[in-house]
Amino acid sequence: MDKRTSVTDLKAMKKRGEKIAMLTAYDYPSARLVEEAGVPIILVGDSLGMVVLGYDSTVPVTMDEMLHHVKAVVRATKRAHVVADMPFMSYQASPADALRNAGRLLKEGGAQSVKLEGGARVAETVRMMVEAGIPVMGHVGLTPQSVNQFGGYKVQGKTPAAAVRLLSDAMALQEAGAYAIVLETIPAQVAETITGKLSIPTIGIGAGPGCDGQVQVFHDLLGLFTDFTPRHARRYAEVGETIINAVRNYAFDVQEGRFPTDKESFIMSETVFSDVTHLA
Ligand code: KIV
Question: Is the pTM of this model over 0.70?
Answer without folding.
Answer: yes
